[in-house]
């Protein structure tokens, strides 16, 4: 295991190097500029379409609203609780600023992904709409780029077991054992049963569950987080100041602990931002391709809200709560006092967020985080099961769906009882491997996105076609 961890770590250092961060931010910024910052300026339009889209308005399997909820079910997970904490612990308060920047450009990325997913989606042998990067690469870029679509599907099918299964199951198992004394094996078995009850019903059942559970859990967490911030309102100004200050200058932690260089703030802010909102990974458009939507731009305007809600709202609340409550300084001081100067397990991220809430809400804060993380992680398992199976379906056909779902369910138990450090490292690495083919495709197909967007707004939203081609 040590050798495998070492190899994975070396690959991680390469794929999450400066060039990858530049690629993610660069493509997102290029799309934002090409769209004339429409995703930011049209947030209100997106929300209007979202609430109008609770019922299907075209061909597809799930409503536009449930498509977004399915997407959010996969993004609002451990990244919002443990990932944010890990980012500010290793990169300092400035990491939150770079999470924001990733989200702002990521809104354009997520918009473009959904537009292309609906534009180039197909119907499979079962009559269901399927789409995502592998399909807009195949149908949009042509045969000479087919290998790129295969690469995405291969990375996505494997990555799902890390980011969407192992990390989530392990996070739930660890936090329930710590807070409620529940054995990891018991958690693994319960998660298997609950997941099986949903995913064996396909995207329709996943969408229905996500449409009810995601809004509830997101609002509940936001309300609890705002209460923590309200009780620490005197420190909010300083916390926000630290976020902007240490985004560009080295951070010297209090309590005699070592600080963080600006590069670490950027590296962990962008990496954890992408891990949380998944803009650029190419995962979310797989869900949006199944939407009963009027057309590509309509769904794109709804899809971009996922990044805004996930990072600008939920992750911000987590990050500011950690900084304003004093949990960050206290945790690092304790870390150094115990003689630990390097290395950091991801589960400590959840512990840090828990400390922030428990410090502010004694007796209940820690339990709130344990429950929130458990529900977040469960819905992420549901959403990513759909992403993974569609990647495998692209490679092997519809006959692979049931075997993949069974394997997915069985893998949950392993994830719940495995070593989280390696699982987190593997998931982080595979994130980048997924992003590369998708970002290349987004850049090459950007003229199509710009053209469809221009036509949509020029016609007052009447130039939409739902998209979809028969399976070949």
Task: Jot down its keywords.
1% strand, Amino acid/polyamine transporter I, single chain, 3-stranded mixed β-sheet, mainly alpha, 472 residues, 20 helices
Detailed description of the structure:
This is Amino-acid carrier protein AlsT. It is built from 20 helices and three strands. It has helices spanning 2-15, 18-34, 38-41, 43-52, 64-75, 78-91, 94-119, 133-141, 146-180, 184-199, 202-231, 233-245, 262-277, 284-288, 296-324, 327-337, 347-360, 365-396, 401-417, 420-458, and strands at residues 122-123, 129-130, 469-470. The protein has a three-stranded mixed sheet, with no helix packed on it. The N and C termini lie far apart (42 Å). Mean pLDDT is 86; it is low at 341-347.
In short:
The chain is an all-alpha fold and 472 residues long.
Low-confidence stretches: 341-347
CATH superfamily: Amino acid/polyamine transporter I
Principal-axes shape call: globular
Structural class: mainly alpha
Mean pLDDT, rounded to whole units?
86
Helix content: over 70%
Order of helices and strands: HHHHHHHEEHHHHHHHHHHHHHE
Count the beta strands. Answer: 3
| Rg of Cα set | 21 Å
> In what range is the share of β-strand residues?
under 5%
Indicate the CATH class.
Answer: Mainly Alpha
CATH architecture: Up-down Bundle
Organism: Ruegeria meonggei
Subcellular location: Cell inner membrane; Cell membrane
Main location: membrane
Family: Belongs to the alanine or glycine:cation symporter (AGCS) (TC 2.A.25) family.
